[in-house]
Amino acid sequence: MDREGQKRIVEALVLGAPEPVSAQKLAEVVPGLEPDDARSLLAELGREYEEQGRAFEIWEVAGGYQLRTRPEYASYLRLLHRERPLRLSRAALETLAVVAYRQPVTRAEIEAVRGVEADAVLKSLLERQLVRVAGHREVPGRPILYGTTRRFLEVFGLGQLDDLPTLREVEDLLALPADGSAPPPPVSATGDESGDDAEMEPAPELH
Amino acid sequence: MESPGPIGAELRPEGVSAANACAIKLQVFEGPLDLLLHLIRLNEVDITDIPIADIATQYSEYVSLMHELDLDVAGEYLLMAATLAWIKSRMLLPPDGAGDEDEGPDPRAELVARLLEYQRFKEAAEQLGERTLEGRDVFAPQALELEPVPDEERALAVSLVALLEAFRRVLARAGGTGRHEVTAEPIHVRDRMLVVMEALAKRESLDFESLFELEPGRPWSRALLIATFLAILELVRLAAVRVYQGLDAAGVPEGTIRLRRAEGPGADDWAAAVAEIT
């Protein structure tokens, strides 16, 4: 099979797949194709679409490749998708942020950060498959642990979790002057993301 | 959620009556921490040195206003009001002993830490929301419903009777003396559901019986066997798993019962359902 033939098959696979398809998977399916070849074919396809001014492009998300419409056409497509539009409220985004950066994390830990109940939002995020149950913590009560899903990576256009932008440090938020002229803040510096916030227990009133 | 606009500094809460309510565009806060951050910004104060008395007063005014406008004031807002009052009182009282300013921890410290932590994630959330989202800004071809059919065995709905029979065999093999064991560790059907799903995640399909041999080295009490069976039934009910059996030449179900994870959009809701079981 010649290269053009392979390219067409790769194109068909990326179009017809229900979710992002990896270079490995493409190599398995297309005769005589190595993963690196798949990648270069996809890059070529991407360039062709650009040059031809097509309304779609190839994204690399969630460890695979996916065909997507260009953002310019969003308003038109939203008209088509009126029944199940993707709308993420601030509460959903904040909860997702906590789960994404702190996973695996319990409901109580999410609530400690946001200061409000997380039940309804978590249920909604679970149903939308942006969040998943990732086991439970081996402590009394065995609370459920939550993590993000591959769908989360897909929706947010991330190749993998490491592609999340770094969380801003508390020190950056305080923006203390570099010459150290400001008095030391009464706050305990909490730059760590390990989740082990021994210095920062939730207020006693909040479960 | 759209935020039409904050209550401006020009609007004094005590000057508002219910009649003016419809003319006001109220910023909806994502909870007490969000409201406090707003007040801190509004008053242009240093978060590391919050004038608690002022902020607490304004906070209470806002909460009263939300009440007056019939907005849903969650309990967390009232809890925070109490916290602020507590902090205020601690700031007013001298610490035990000499009354030296340097003594004792700052009563605001914990609150400030919480506020900063929340702010980190609030900003992270905003950043996430600004990304190009699939399903909102860009769209991928719709998922095709692909249901892989195993070659060797035809999928067949296995009757409850067949499952019970299979379970009875499991119990018999385990030495069903009916002896009661008191284990220190409570057994939850929910946990067993997670264990089963995890096992199925690793393999294409599993024998029904092998689900009662997971976690080798762990003693399987009768209670654990039963809880695991209930978990399987629950997962079937949720359509999270498919239970099937081979057919013999005559088309009669025979052979070992096997399970595999179900495909399709409904199947992933099991996680939400499990999370609801407490």
Overview of the molecule:
The complex is a heterodimer of chains A (207) and B (278). Chain A has 207 residues and is of the alpha+beta class. Chain A has two domains: 3-76, Winged helix-like DNA-binding domain superfamily/Winged helix DNA-binding domain (Arc Repressor Mutant, subunit A), CATH 1.10.10; 90-174, Orthogonal Bundle (Arc Repressor Mutant, subunit A). Chain A contains nine helices and five strands, in the order H-H-H-E-E-H-H-E-H-H-E-E-H-H. Chain A has a three-stranded antiparallel beta sheet. In chain A, strand 4 and strand 5 (144-148) form a beta hairpin. Chain A is elongated, with a radius of gyration of 22 Å. The termini of chain A are far apart. By secondary structure, chain B is mainly alpha-helical. Chain B is built from eight helices and three strands. In chain B, strands 1-3-2 form a three-stranded antiparallel beta sheet. Classes of the chains: A alpha+beta (207), B mainly alpha (278). The interface between A and B is large, with 72 and 64 residues.
Write a concise synopsis of the structure shown.
The complex is a heterodimer of chains A (207) and B (278). Chain A is an alpha+beta fold and 207 residues long. Chain A is built from 9 helices and 5 strands; from the N terminus they run αααββααβααββαα.
Write the layout of secondary structure elements.
The complex is a heterodimer of chains A (207) and B (278).
Chain A: H1 3-16, H2 23-29, H3 35-52, E1 56-61, E2 64-69, H4 74-80, H5 90-102, E3 105-106, H6 107-114, H7 119-127, E4 131-136, E5 144-148, H8 150-155, H9 170-174
Antiparallel strand pairs in A: 1-2, 3-5, 4-5
Chain B: H1 32-42, H2 52-68, H3 75-92, H4 109-130, H5 160-173, H6 189-202, E1 206-207, H7 222-237, E2 241-247, E3 253-261, H8 270-276
